[in-house]
Amino acid sequence: MVRFSDRANSIRPTGVRRMFDMAGDDSIQFGLGEPDFQPPPVAIEAFSRAMDEGKNKYTTTAGLPSLRGKIAEMWHHLDPSLDEENVCITMSGTNGLLDIFLALVQPGDNVMLPEPYFPLYPPDVVICGGEPNLYPCTFENGFVPTIEDLESRVDENTVAILYNFPSNPTGGNVTETQRDQLVDFAIRHDLWLITDEVYDRIVYDTPHVSFLGAGYDKVIMVQSFSKTFAMTGWRIGYLLSPDDDAMAQLTKMQYYVTACSNDAMQHAVLEALESAPNYPEEMCEEFKARRDLICQRLNAIPGVSCHVPTGAFYVFPKVDVPGMNSEEIAMALLEGGVLCSPGTAFGEMGEGHLRFAYTIGREDIDRGMDRVETVLRELRGD
Ligand SMILES: Cc1ncc(COP(=O)(O)O)c(C=O)c1O
């Protein structure tokens, strides 16, 4: 008899990928969250050079001390006590998230997760034997949770809360005041605070508000170079915590998940950090122009209402077509030549929304929005 684990059987493939696989070649794709840029040329050259120089070996589990030291230094403005021991290089944010849940979650524990969510969070918690405890991030509240909603969900089995700002899929972000209230909540309940800040360098209008250095050391930050340096296919990121015990446990998990990250690539990322430190801000200028364009186009369509996000490269508008749910609307748009994600790919609370990633050029955004407008006007009979 063929038998698979309950854990494997209980999780499903993500809805984002399913739509992507169905898209025709000529569809305009607002589907996947990856920058349409290439990594900085200095990083590509450094990668190739490092391989030529024989840097093709295992590194220590936590990664190259020089890269870890550089990363720690980058966060000194928030916490000057950080050093290389507070950093573990991973093979992506995805890898880092799994390390965290492996290190923190016991059977019967629950982890508070935002909904709508990055689709890996709940399955990751389940894989590690825990239960997702979802808290709402509503359109009405700018996609930031209310403390009342958090208080009504936390219980004696809650071990951690995960915040994700700027957010995938909503583009939601916090002010310093909101951040402080969310930190206070974690302190009040003695929870691990997991902060997924992989979009920290993709911010507009105001500087990034981090959960690091905000008065609480029981914090673990998930980071990635996927978005920062347009390196989604390289698979590299890191975990950072001011808590030494957490770092020891996370690094141990990292060893059993991938042993270490990629040697030559770590040299390439170090080069990018040293020689192209402003690369993310250069990409951001273009993302900002796209954000303005897509928000303006969406808000001009009857039945569509969209916040102007201050971070990441997603918009998560409310889309109202009477009698149709978000999956049906996304399917109709796909038939009309536009790929986007139904809000429910990010949890049930995403119902009534669509996610558009503005990771395509402005001309394509305009053409795509023409199609969206035509399809939605037809569906609504406007
Ligand atoms: C919120 C969030 N966290 C983590 C990740 C993981 O990124 P990666 O595995 O490419 O580092 C992503 C990727 O889309 C994301 O959107």
Architecture blueprint of SSEs:
Blueprint: H1 6-10, H2 15-22, E1 28-29, H3 41-52, H4 65-74, E2 87-90, H5 93-104, E3 110-115, H6 121-127, E4 131-136, H7 147-153, E5 158-164, H8 176-188, E6 192-196, E7 219-224, E8 237-240, H9 244-258, H10 263-275, H11 279-299, E9 304-305, E10 314-315, E11 318-319, H12 326-335, E12 338-339, E13 341-342, E14 354-357, H13 362-380
Parallel strand pairs: 1-12, 3-4, 3-5, 5-6, 6-7
Antiparallel strand pairs: 2-8, 7-8, 9-11, 10-14, 13-14
Helix pairs in contact: 3-10, 5-9, 11-13
The protein binds pyridoxal-5'-phosphate.
What structural class do you assign from the helix and strand content? alpha/beta
Please trace the helix and strand order, writing H or E for each element.
HHEHHEHEHEHEHEEEHHHEEEHEEEH
Rg, Cα atoms, Å: 21 Å
Question: Could you give a short account of the major beta sheet?
Answer: 7 strands, mixed
As for the number of domains, it is 2
Top CATH class of the largest domain: Alpha Beta
The number of strands is 14
Low-confidence stretches: none
**Which overall shape is indicated by the principal axes computed on the Cα atoms?**
globular
The CATH superfamily of the largest domain bears the name Type I PLP-dependent aspartate aminotransferase-like (Major domain)
Number of helices: 13
If classified by CATH, what would the architecture of the largest domain be?
A: 3-Layer(aba) Sandwich
Estimate the helix proportion, in percent. Answer: 25-40%
The oligomeric state is single chain
Give the strand line-up of the largest sheet.
2-8-7-6-5-3-4
Distance between the termini: 56 Å
CATH topology of the largest domain: Aspartate Aminotransferase, domain 2
Small molecules bound in the structure, each named once: pyridoxal-5'-phosphate
Strand content: 5-15%
Mean pLDDT: 96
